[in-house]
């Protein structure tokens, strides 16, 4: 309330925390005059600050209001100075009250989270309240029933937790047993956790419960359905349910036709309901950056081929068709200097020339021309294969293993060699043309190099675009950077406190991202030992991470069953995609940067339009977790690999054509997915008994797949 705010503002001023005071006043829309007037009223109403002590922390507006407004959950930590300084002053403020004789709880966070459950009604009537609402929804018109049925799960959870918190254990048990079977099947894992919370003491340390309480469950409902619900609860004077709806749910109301059961089922299933429509309104620069122009000289063999046919040699150097496409600036691309990117070295330019030559010989894929697939099976992988990556030029493959080793293989006749010792290097003529060959030590040449350093299973690996470095992340909480010149560890990045599930280099090198059990993703630069950005907002482990092709955005998939898109520049979350019914394990951006494909334990591949923030497709066919997704080099085909031992190829061109992205669809989320995705399936390829953990298209569009043979 106003008096509490004024007292806090005065305390901040006395503590010389001017910046926090200014921000709080702006947030609360209190001007200087208001402050003086209300301060006088506070002073006259009671001596000291006893009035403020009457407001318990977490009860009423102060703590909860700030929790709602602080940008910390969705933004970079460095941008939350206000939040942390205010939290400090908040604790100091209530400490001051405690010294003055008021009683303050030790943990304001936990008490704030749980205190709302004190507003309880008659515990014996909870079952009656819930079944009354259930009966009303089931008897309502079909068009409203599907939308209002979304209320069942969050109401069930909050009513159960309220009974447990207020120590009505037998009523809570009876309530759970009677209604838990009515919930949607994709909430079964959450309900299993909930069933273990049977006493008030269990609630204080439980992360799932705290998540459910601190983040309002989001429901998207049409205005007509909402008015119907409101009228029913007011007529029945069902205050218990109405209080939960207002206190713990966020109802995102839209004007227009109610959504069908199919449309709702496509979007729900995450830990905190659907995404608010506002969450997907920010502008996203999904276009590609303009490529630097290169002259690609003709190969000798090309020239010979042309002469054999009796055609004259072309004088002009040949330009690559892909390069020429990118001459014009993409209207959806970010400004070239929006984020600082590393300058191209000579070796990078040479590699780009090679890439363009390969692209000129690339096979154009489509329904009539499917790629050949080459499968790398790891045999006798008793160490337990946990991660795979392949270099962009398909010359090396790396495996991360449960025995904490990282193993690098050469998949070309060229063996892996280390750089010579310092003493030997001093004898080399640095001016010679083949100096890069001379510095390599032939005695060290081998097909396989084993890298030791981690002290736990290695869950993610990623080669740098220039193939000079390799990243690995592990259960030991570190990300390591290895040199592929010396095959030694250069840096151990320590920032995560728990296992790190995934890491990936930016397509331009230098930057990389990691995500782990601590629920945050971190952006790093290879020459900084501290993260540059911390992306906080997921409610469970960050299981997979991917850079957008223009390197300005990062996608993260999580066990909270959502995918988020983060802006590298400012750390903001610019997209939240809900619809998966299980933890997400694979992400892939289309080569043009416009679309994102996601795969999860539910065996579905979902397709998203990044610009409009909409789901535009659903590919069903896999019977188990999808661990690998990859678009072909030109984006015509999407390959998916799963624990069901299959690789499936999908027609990406057909999946993305004729998209309905009109204003109404964008505003309300009335997506219309095709009933059957089988007409998009171009082929299914089974392995004998090898789950697919990685997919990679070569520069000429040969598909490489990898996994470890499983004898079970």
Automatic annotation (TrEMBL):
Annotated WD repeat ranges: 378-419, 451-486, 493-524, 535-576, 577-610, 619-651
A Pfam family matched in the record: WD40
Location (main, coarse): nucleus
Any single Gene Ontology cellular-component annotation: transcription factor TFIID complex
GO MF term list: RNA polymerase II general transcription initiation factor activity
Record field: compositional bias (Basic and acidic residues): 319-330
UniProtKB keywords: Nucleus, Repeat, Transcription, Transcription regulation, WD repeat
PROSITE patterns: LISH, WD_REPEATS_1, WD_REPEATS_2, WD_REPEATS_REGION
Places the protein is found: Nucleus
GO BP terms: transcription initiation at RNA polymerase II promoter
Database matches in InterPro entries: LisH, TFIID_NTD2, TFIID_NTD2_sf, WD40/YVTN_repeat-like_dom_sf, WD40_PAC1, WD40_repeat_CS, WD40_repeat_dom_sf, WD40_rpt
Annotated spans, Disordered: 296-348
Bias-annotated ranges (Acidic residues): 296-307
CDD domains named among the record's database cross-references: TAF5_NTD2, WD40
Domain TFIID subunit TAF5 NTD2: 121-249
Entry similarity comment: Belongs to the WD repeat TAF5 family.
Assembly: Homodimer. Component of the TFIID basal transcription factor complex, composed of TATA-box-binding protein TBP, and a number of TBP-associated factors (TAFs), including TAF1, TAF2, TAF3, TAF4, TAF5, TAF6, TAF7, TAF8, TAF9, TAF10, TAF11, TAF12 and TAF13. The TFIID complex structure can be divided into 3 modules TFIID-A, TFIID-B, and TFIID-C. TAF5 forms the TFIID-A module together with TAF3 and TBP, and in TFIID-B with TAF8. Component of the TFTC-HAT complex, at least composed of TAF5L, TAF6L, TADA3L, SUPT3H/SPT3, TAF2, TAF4, TAF5, GCN5L2/GCN5, TAF10 and TRRAP.
PANTHER family: TRANSCRIPTION INITIATION FACTOR TFIID (PTHR19879), TRANSCRIPTION INITIATION FACTOR TFIID SUBUNIT 5 (PTHR19879:SF4)
Free-text function comment from the UniProt entry: The TFIID basal transcription factor complex plays a major role in the initiation of RNA polymerase II (Pol II)-dependent transcription. TFIID recognizes and binds promoters with or without a TATA box via its subunit TBP, a TATA-box-binding protein, and promotes assembly of the pre-initiation complex (PIC). The TFIID complex consists of TBP and TBP-associated factors (TAFs), including TAF1, TAF2, TAF3, TAF4, TAF5, TAF6, TAF7, TAF8, TAF9, TAF10, TAF11, TAF12 and TAF13. The TFIID complex structure can be divided into 3 modules TFIID-A, TFIID-B, and TFIID-C.
Name of the featured protein: Transcription initiation factor TFIID subunit 5
Organism of origin: Nycticryphes semicollaris
Gene that encodes it: Taf5
């Amino acid at each position: 309330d106003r008096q509490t705010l004024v007292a806090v503002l005065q305390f901040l001023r006395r503590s010389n925390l001017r910046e926090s005071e200014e921000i709080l006043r702006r947030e609360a829309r209190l001007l200087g005059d208001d402050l003086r007037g209300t301060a006088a009223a506070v002073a006259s109403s009671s001596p000291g600050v006893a009035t403020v002590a009457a407001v318990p922390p977490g009860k009423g507006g102060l703590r909860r209001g700030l929790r709602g407004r602080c940008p910390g959950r969705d933004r970079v930590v460095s941008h939350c100075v206000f939040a942390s300084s205010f939290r400090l002053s908040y604790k100091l403020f209530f400490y001051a009250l405690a010294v003055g004789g008021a009683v303050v709880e030790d943990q304001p966070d936990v008490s704030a989270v749980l205190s709302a459950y004190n507003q309880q009604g008659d515990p014996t009537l909870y079952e009656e309240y819930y079944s009354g609402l259930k009966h009303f929804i089931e008897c309502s018109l079909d068009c409203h029933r599907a939308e209002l049925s979304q209320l069942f799960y969050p109401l069930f959870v909050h009513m159960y937790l309220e009974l447990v918190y207020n120590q009505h254990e037998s009523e809570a048990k009876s309530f759970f047993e009677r209604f838990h079977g009515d919930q949607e099947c994709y909430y079964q894992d959450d309900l299993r956790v909930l069933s273990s919370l049977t006493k008030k003491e269990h609630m204080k340390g439980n992360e799932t419960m705290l998540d459910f309480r601190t983040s309002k469950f989001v429901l998207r409902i049409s205005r007509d359905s909402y008015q119907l619900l409101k009228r029913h609860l007011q007529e029945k004077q069902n205050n218990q349910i109405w209080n939960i709806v207002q206190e713990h749910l966020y109802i995102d109301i839209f004007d227009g036709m109610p959504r069908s059961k199919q449309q709702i089922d496509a979007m729900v299933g995450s830990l905190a309901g659907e995404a608010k429509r506002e969450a997907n309104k920010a502008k996203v620069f999904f276009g590609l950056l303009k490529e630097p122009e290169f002259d690609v000289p003709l190969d000798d063999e090309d020239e010979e081929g042309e002469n054999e046919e009796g055609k004259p040699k072309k004088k002009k150097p040949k330009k690559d068709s892909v390069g020429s496409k990118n001459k014009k600036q993409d209207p959806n691309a970010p400004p070239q200097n929006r984020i600082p990117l590393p300058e191209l070295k000579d070796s990078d330019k040479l590699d780009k020339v090679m890439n363009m030559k390969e692209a000129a010989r690339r096979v154009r894929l489509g329904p009539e021309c499917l790629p050949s697939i080459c499968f790398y099976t790891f045999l006798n992988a008793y160490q337990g294969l946990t991660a795979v990556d392949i270099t962009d030029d398909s010359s090396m493959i790396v495996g991360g293993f449960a025995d904490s080793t990282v193993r690098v293989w050469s998949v070309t006749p060229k063996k892996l060699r280390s750089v010579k010792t310092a003493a030997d290097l001093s004898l080399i003529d640095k001016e010679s043309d083949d100096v890069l060959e001379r510095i390599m030590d032939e005695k060290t040449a081998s097909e396989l190099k084993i890298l030791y350093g981690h002290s736990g299973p290695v869950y993610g690996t990623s080669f740098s675009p220039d193939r000079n470095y390799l990243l690995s992340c592990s259960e030991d909480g570190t990300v390591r950077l290895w040199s592929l010149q010396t095959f030694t560890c250069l840096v151990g990045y320590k920032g995560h406190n728990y296992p790190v599930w995934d890491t990936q280099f930016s397509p331009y090198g230098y930057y990389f991202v990691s995500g782990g059990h601590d629920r945050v993703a971190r952006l790093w630069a290879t020459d900084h030992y501290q993260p540059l950005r911390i992306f906080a907002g997921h409610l469970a482990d960050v299981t997979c991470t991917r850079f957008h092709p223009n390197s300005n955005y990062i996608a993260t998939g999580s066990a909270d069953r959502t995918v988020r898109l983060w802006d590298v520049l400012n750390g903001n979350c610019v997209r939240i995609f809900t619809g998966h019914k299980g933890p997400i394990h694979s992400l892939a951006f289309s080569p043009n940067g416009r679309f994102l494909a996601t795969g999860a334990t539910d065996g579905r591949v979902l397709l998203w339009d990044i610009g409009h923030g909409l789901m535009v497709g659903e590919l069903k066919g896999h019977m188990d977790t999808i661990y690998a997704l990859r678009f072909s080099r030109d984006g015509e085909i999407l390959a998916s690999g799963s624990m069901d031992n299959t690789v499936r190829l999908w027609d990406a061109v057909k999946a993305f054509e004729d998209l309905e992205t009109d204003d109404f669809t964008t505003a309300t989320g009335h997506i219309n997915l095709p009933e059957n995705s089988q007409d998009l399936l171009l082929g299914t390829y089974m392995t004998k008994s090898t789950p697919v953990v990685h997919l990679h298209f070569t520069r000429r569009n040969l598909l490489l797949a990898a996994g470890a043979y499983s004898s079970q």
